[in-house]
Amino acid sequence: MALIEIRNLTKSFGNLKAVDDISLDIESGEFITLLGPSGSGKTTVLRMIAGFEDPDAGLIKLNGEDITHLPPFDRDVNTVFQDYALFPHMSVQENVEYGLRTRKVPKAERAKQAIAAIASVKLEETVDRLPHQLSGGQRQRIALARALVLRPRVLLLDEPLGALDRQLREEMQVELKKIQRDAGITFVFVTHDQEEAMRMSDRIVVFNSGRIEQVGTPEQVYEEPRTNFVAGFLGTANIFTADMASKLLGTSSTVSIRPERIRLQALGTKIDKSETSIVGTIHEAAFVGANTIYIIETEFGMKLTVRKTNTELLGQDDSFVAGDQVMAVWRNSHVAQIPV
């Protein structure tokens, strides 16, 4: 039995169907991410699990108990929001103790538990500070400690890293995953950032227009997209229509090829029998640090995106430039068929 069972969940706001008949199982101890663009329904699902929104139809079970219409304080879940929601007039320790105090935990015991929770996020030196005396990353970790000290079965995280700068965000991604592993609590994480989802998650649930497009490990949703939307939303994909795929590969289905799976060769280069090539002209070449991105105008009239890792030493790079005619080559095994 899954820890969280969601069955035929539906929610509308006026004429907008925010969540459209979705079903999902979430296992105990996993880090699962609800991923999708703004308005895709992911946050509404999180809020219904938390009890902040009431479904129009469907069922939510937690550890076998029907919690569909229970108020938030009667559910064994806790939520961390993007704005952290720390009490500005309370010290760090008082903020972390707050939930324990509302549960009537004795003063000495709640102080002990709060200090242990603060230590788990490595901020023992901040116990007497006020929230405004902390950095954004420190406030994020204290918000986590305040949620974790209550030992919920499930921690719900609504884009908690969205307000952080890129470097701190990447550091916190590592910290969050470590905290989740150490605590052994199920994390349900909402984000629109594809790289963040792939870096942190055991499984990803891809949302679009209120429905689930695909559920799988990061590798599965990236390498084996089940719909055009998933192929295009997670990273960059070169999508060949069924007609184009038939001409090139002899397949009647739509297919996708990731830019990093394609290499550029000089015209006339011999290729292996297990490979396919297409001739084109480099329309654009952009250096972006670790990679160079090429846009190729192909002989069939479609554009290909190619990503090349910059492994060569400076001054020894024989990369192609805009205007060059090239062969774009890929292994047939790197082509993903898209069934929908």
Write a concise synopsis of the structure shown:
Keywords: ATP-binding, Nucleotide-binding, Transport. The chain is α+β, with helices and mostly antiparallel strands and 340 residues long. It has 9 helices and 18 strands.
Structure description:
The chain has two domains: 2-233, 3-Layer(aba) Sandwich (Rossmann fold); 236-337, RNA polymerase II/Efflux pump adaptor protein, barrel-sandwich hybrid domain (OB fold (Dihydrolipoamide Acetyltransferase, E2P)), CATH 2.40.50. It is built from nine helices and 18 strands. It has helices at residues 42-50, 92-102, 107-120, 136-148, 166-183, 194-200, 218-223, 228-233, 242-249; strands at residues 4-13, 16-26, 31-35, 57-62, 65-66, 77-80, 154-158, 186-191, 203-208, 211-216, 238-240, 254-257, 263-265, 275-287, 291-298, 303-309, 325-331, 336-338. The strands form four sheets. The protein has a six-stranded mixed beta sheet, sandwiched between helices. The chain has a five-stranded antiparallel beta sheet with strand order 13-17-14-15-16, with no helix packed on it.
